[in-house]
Amino acid sequence: MELCRATLSWTNSFAPVFHIPQYTQVNGCKKFRFLCMNSDNESTGSQSNQMIVSITGGTGFVGRRLVQRLISDKHSVRVLTRSRAKAQSVFPVRNFPGLIIAEESEWGKCIQGSDAVVNLAGMPISTRWSPEIKREIKQSRIKATSKVVDLINQSEDDVRPSVLVSATAVGYYGTSETQVFDETSPSGNDYLAEVCREWEGRALKVNKDVRLVLIRIGVVLGKDGGALAKMIPLFMMFAGGPLGSGKQWFSWIHVDDLVNLIYESLSNPSYRGVINGTAPNPVRLAEMCEHLGEVMGRPSWLPVPDFALKAVLGEGATIVLDGQRVLPKRAKELGFSFRYPYVKDALKSIMSTVKLSPSRF
């Protein structure tokens, strides 16, 4: 059974190969461990490298990319969701024939027998905040993490996952224009720092025999979601330029690098504890906006005023108008290789696939 936990070789491939071995579920999920090693389906290489991974938040911006990455490398994926209909629309069976979609009542059976669990669940924060939304942002993370941890802890030793990778955020550190934060820095004292402390606190209750990785994620850059998708139409309206003062630090990561970091955390036993999910070169927001204007072919001299961003995001504008300089010290110590260490290259890659027209947004 332990052969399914073997360390994976590193790959940077993101080619969508929508095929995984077909398994039969009999009285729960235990049968998957045997079939993981002895599938009758076509395979490439040794089956000992295959993992069974259960994922919460699999239909989200990052989760979708992670699911595709795991499936492209022939791993078995179980998407743990609150809405089967939504998950089926994101992952149609014709393209994902071996993917298992499980609603909350089925999470326990899927977690039992998985080699690893990735917890990405949580309401997006790049939205307008109200007291009700703030409560939901917090509770969506705490409840999902608590449920996942409880189900892992309730599993028998022989079917308990060996690793939990749980998302958290650089909001843990609070905001500053002068300080530099790494994984050893203390927590801040604002709303997002409070959310992150409680979020991480629930994950830390996982069984001591389970390797826990807490990834404190920065602003994720990609064309399909996150803060960048909110910023691009503002640039189009105002012809580009800094958001707010422009002096605030912008700790970012390309979505492909984040997916690679999660992937490596699943398979590499050296990855444990807190790891900052940020690129090694954070920038002032003015510099980031200058590069964005350049790759969009927009001038970057006219600032986007605070009130315009707040009109779109309300109090949630704090994730752009405030900031912190966060360095991925632990990832660099582990030898993690960033495909996009510089924001200009990341933006070029992203914007090369985006059609810049008002209807796009």
Automatic annotation (TrEMBL):
It comes from the Eukaryota. Pfam families: DUF1731, Epimerase. InterPro entries: DUF1731 (IPR013549), Epimerase_deHydtase (IPR001509), NAD(P)-bd_dom_sf (IPR036291), SDR39U1 (IPR010099). CDD domains: SDR_a8 (cd05242). Residues 54-269 form the NAD-dependent epimerase/dehydratase domain. Residues 304-350 form the DUF1731 domain. PANTHER family: EPIMERASE FAMILY PROTEIN SDR39U1 (PTHR11092:SF0), SUGAR NUCLEOTIDE EPIMERASE RELATED (PTHR11092). This is Uncharacterized protein. It comes from Aristolochia fimbriata (White veined hardy Dutchman's pipe vine).
